[in-house]
Specification:
Structural class: alpha+beta
Helix content: 25-40%
Number of helices: 22
Radius of gyration: 27 Å
Largest sheet: 11 strands, mixed
Distance between the termini: 117 Å
Shape: globular
Strand content: 15-25%
Number of strands: 31
Length: 761
């Protein structure tokens, strides 16, 4: 062949190769190569009716043994479940994060029925990730799950449809947090025509700025590369969906657009435009990895935010506990101009901004700079860090997660959420009042209390056993050092100067870096449960219990709890947890609690036969809720008293009595029971609420000691031993430590109302 012809052939071949490779790369980036996830299949095996009846009988027997004369059925469920229809769940399922593939709705249904043995559950994938196809498939799957579970009093489980409205604001004024929306029935006309997403950062990121994976990833991942193509296709499907016109009422919108709401009030208004009245449940309120410093519940008590429509609150999940209030703050606010400053450490708390100053000062001194200069740098670092909210840690160059010690954490809280925000705790929310309508008409939250899993691996009700940390919790991360560098960037030089960044500059920083993803991996829990006292075993009975707020929460085990006002009204009525009562005289309460059954290894016969050995291994991880006949002991019962504000600005620190009463229990297999009074009620003459917290004997728990601090003689944390979710901690290591699991009742709300004669005096 002549040289010229050969050159033309080679050149033509290269041109074709360039076109082919370019076309492949373009198709990859557009999500045309890859498969979008589907709903998966549901195992059709029915649960034996005898097992369902035995489950009910054991709980009723326990209730009678502890002195409950006319017990209702106690049913356990999980109202916060994600599958890989949620973008973050899909991301964690990728090989780069050690994921083992997608987890569809069908898998969640199987897990809830056979692995965790729940009575009810709901699906709550992020609305921001949903499309019309995904919503259609979600509805169909939940109906299939209900169909295979049966109907009526012998149904093994009740499936509820829902979604999560996932809002994150950049400032306290813009932040409203996450809300789960759950509907009573499954028919099309009983649920929202489409999930309603939150406008803002999360929504915009998925549709615009969240990066797709380049075709070159095939060189890094080889046979695992199709998972990344699937992620691109997943994002492409989201970006191909048009956003609804916000000026059009929800009931007049087409079915194929993506609907958004800017705040809780707008979310509720749009649901009401469709004639719907779902449960709207706030959750994750104290999670500091995305909640701006300085955020509080106060703005959500305004009338236009519709606080009366939030019937329950999730106070515990796989992200930890959001119950407890503390008087310390992560940042201070100057009264003169509203600017932020870094508060000094207090007992049991060191602000993250303060620790930032300590790190800079330590580095500065190590370079030989004078003490005065290093102290000045520390002061500057603290001030700038206090202004950077959740991104304060990015100002310390070359910092490692271990460098922060226990800064930012509630070290004396029970299994606390990461970087705790006390002004968005449940206790703070119940203590505040809004007086926009006058002192005689305070607006207050009136919540029932639940817990959930917030699983992103399609595992409803994960807290039955503490096993498989990186699957039963959200712990995860880069599977090797190469992926860690790609996700978080190369290790920076450890400089002795704080690098402040503007909000505009921070928008260009990876979300993995902004949220301290690596550090928080040691705080993930297996998750909690919602429990109801239901007047029968049916969908309506469960729903009605939520409406009455006759619900309680557990940190995972299936504990039993009753909390009653025994002298309500005229002194002869009995009102259960969740009740709101006008009361003049001193209240008397009764509390009864029973520990959860100790677990046997493996799975019960009905689960093994229903799922089969392969699915028991793949979905349940070889373990199921498999109770023995022996219960854990209840160690103590604690009563919390909260007296909501009666005047604007009343100090919340003085209004929360935790614990108001602590009752030590005698060891008994039947549980623990006692009665108590509040003799101060009439003297104080103000509205008051009470709830019970039953505490079980300690058991080994994943990440119960998240920092594993080594302390000096004064009790200061001088070194931490984090349990990483990535390759740096053995994936078979469950990082167990003792924890006293507990159950929380919904409060009983008393409105102080004296007789006319007493009022006249």
């Amino acid at each position: 062949m002549a040289l010229g012809k050969m050159t033309k052939v080679i050149g033509g071949g290269l041109a074709i190769a360039v076109v082919v490779i370019g076309g492949y790369a373009l198709s990859w980036s557009l999500g045309l190569i890859g498969q979008v996830p589907t709903q998966g299949t549901i195992t059709q095996s029915p649960m034996p009716e005898s097992d369902v009846l035995a489950r009910q009988s054991r709980r009723l027997t326990s209730a009678k043994n502890i002195g409950v004369s006319q017990p209702k059925q106690v049913l356990f469920g999980d109202f916060h479940v994600h599958t890989t229809y949620s973008a973050d769940a899909f991301l964690w399922a990728l090989p780069m994060n050690g994921g083992n593939g997608v987890h569809p709705i069908g898998e969640a249904c199987d897990f809830a029925r056979f692995c965790s043995n729940l009575d009810f559950w709901s699906i709550n994938d992020h609305a921001e990730s949903m499309t019309k196809r995904r919503w259609d498939e979600t509805r169909a799957s939940m109906r299939q799950c209900q169909a295979v579970s049966g109907e009526g009093p012998t149904a093994d489980m009740f499936s509820f449809l829902g979604f999560e409205w996932t809002q994150v604001g950049a400032t306290p004024a813009q932040h409203y947090g996450h809300k789960n929306v759950v509907f009573q029935d499954l028919a099309d006309d009983a649920v929202s025509a489409r999930p309603i997403a939150s406008s803002g950062a999360a929504f915009d990121a998925l549709r615009k700025s969240f990066p797709t994976f380049p075709a070159a990833i095939t060189l890094v991942e080889g046979t695992k590369a199709p998972a990344y193509a699937d992620m691109n296709a997943f994002l492409g499907e989201i970006r191909a969906s048009r956003v609804c016109d916000p000026s059009i009422p929800s009931n007049e919108l087409p079915l194929d657009c993506v609907e958004v709401a800017a705040n809780p009030g707008e979310l509720l208004a749009r649901l009401e435009q469709q004639g719907l009245d779902p449960l709207v449940i706030p959750h994750g309120s104290t999670w500091g990895f995305y909640t701006p410093t300085g955020t509080s519940w106060d703005k959500q008590l305004k009338a236009d935010m519709r606080p009366e429509r939030m019937n329950a609150i999730e106070i515990y999940s796989g992200h930890g506990n959001s119950e407890e209030y503390r008087s310390w703050r992560s940042v201070g606010v100057r009264e003169t101009d509203g600017s932020y400053f870094c508060p000094e450490p207090s007992e049991n708390y060191t602000p993250g901004c303060w620790r930032a100053g300590e790190i800079i000062e330590e580095r500065c001194l190590a370079t030989g700079v004078g003490a005065a200069e290093c102290s000045a740098r520390a002061v500057d670092a603290r001030q700038i860090a206090s202004e950077m909210s959740v991104a304060f840690h990015t100002g310390v160059q070359g910092v490692q997660a271990e460098d922060w010690l226990d800064a930012g954490q509630c070290v004396d809280c029970f299994l606390p959420a990461f970087n705790y925000r006390p002004m968005t705790s449940m206790q703070y929310g119940l203590a505040i009042s809004n007086f926009d309508d006058g002192l005689d008409k305070p607006r207050r939250f009136n919540w029932g209390v639940i817990a959930s899993s917030d699983t992103h691996r399609a595992r409803p009700g994960t807290g039955f056993k503490e096993y498989q940390r990186t699957v039963s919790t959200e712990a995860g991360g880069a599977r090797n050092e190469g992926w860690r560098k790609r996700l978080f960037g190369a290790q920076q030089e450890r400089t002795p100067n704080f690098q402040g960044r503007t909000r505009e500059e921070l928008t260009r920083v990876s979300g993995f870096q902004l949220t301290e993803m690596e550090r928080q991996s040691s705080f993930w829990q297996t998750g909690g449960l919602a429990a109801v006292h239901a007047e029968g075993r049916s969908r309506k009975a469960i729903w009605d219990a939520f409406q009455r707020k006759e619900v309680f929460a557990t940190s995972g085990p299936k504990m039993l709890l009753w909390f009653d006002l025994v002298n309500a009204g005229d002194g002869t009525q009995v009102e259960p947890m969740g009740a709101s009562v006008e009361q003049e005289h001193a209240p008397t309460f009764s509390v009864r609690a029973t520990g959860s059954f100790k677990q046997k290894p493996g799975c019960p016969e009905f689960a093994t036969e229903g799922l089969g050995a392969d699915k028991i291994a793949a979905i349940c991880g070889g373990e199921c809720d498999n109770p023995s006949d022996v219960r854990h002991m209840i160690k103590r019962i604690e009563i919390v008293r909260i007296r909501p504000q009666t005047t604007p600005g009343e100090n919340v620190d003085d209004l929360i009595d935790d614990a108001f009463i602590t009752h030590t229990c005698e060891p008994s297999p039947d549980g623990c029971a006692f009665e108590f009074q509040d003799p101060d009620y009439e003297t104080l003459g103000r509205d008051t609420l009470y709830y019970a917290r039953a505490v079980q004997e300690s058991t080994p728990t994943i990440n119960a000691d998240p920092m594993q601090c080594e302390r000096d003689g004064d009790g200061n944390c001088i070194k931490v031993n984090l349990c990483h979710g990535d390759y740096r901690t053995d994936q078979s290591e469950d990082c167990l430590a003792p924890a006293e699991h507990r159950a929380w009742s919904s409060p009983i709300y008393l409105t102080y109302k004296p007789t006319q004669q007493a009022a006249a005096q």
